[in-house]
Amino acid sequence: xxxxxxxxxxxxxxxxxxxxxxxxxxxxxxxxxxxxxxxxxxxxxxxxxxxxxxxxxxxxxxxxxxxxxxxxxxxxxxxxxxxxxxxxxxxxxxxxxxxxxxxxxxxxxxxxxxxxxxxxxxxxxxxxxxxxxxxxxxxxxxxxxxxxxxxxxxxxx
Length: 157
Description:
- With 157 residues, this protein is of the alpha+beta class.
- 32% of the residues lie in helices and 15% in strands.
- A hairpin with a 2-residue loop joins strand 3 (48-51) and strand 4.
């Protein structure tokens, strides 16, 4: 089936199998490998992307379900000249990563979360990110990075 989406500001149109998951469309068809495949069950959040500005777990969404929609992946967060998005910069400054596997999904979840909660408390951040797992247990720094991004007024692109 034909799928046409706007990914990181660029319109893409491809024939895909009806059962192709969005995460595999992004990784294998578009070559955007920043979106990770972790659990394939929406349990870990490593595959989180923004769909029309809202975070979704792309491992359980069909590419066909995204037809006509706008998707932002981790590759679309930094500016075209390579300047990190304020959320990415906050993660860098506050060492909101360890192995880095969860980081793309966390950053995207934070972008969606801060859109809805621009001035969150620590407890709200912890609750808001509960659907994204860090296997290294780096939550303290992830929370601190999120709070720092909120103080800077960081919103999704």
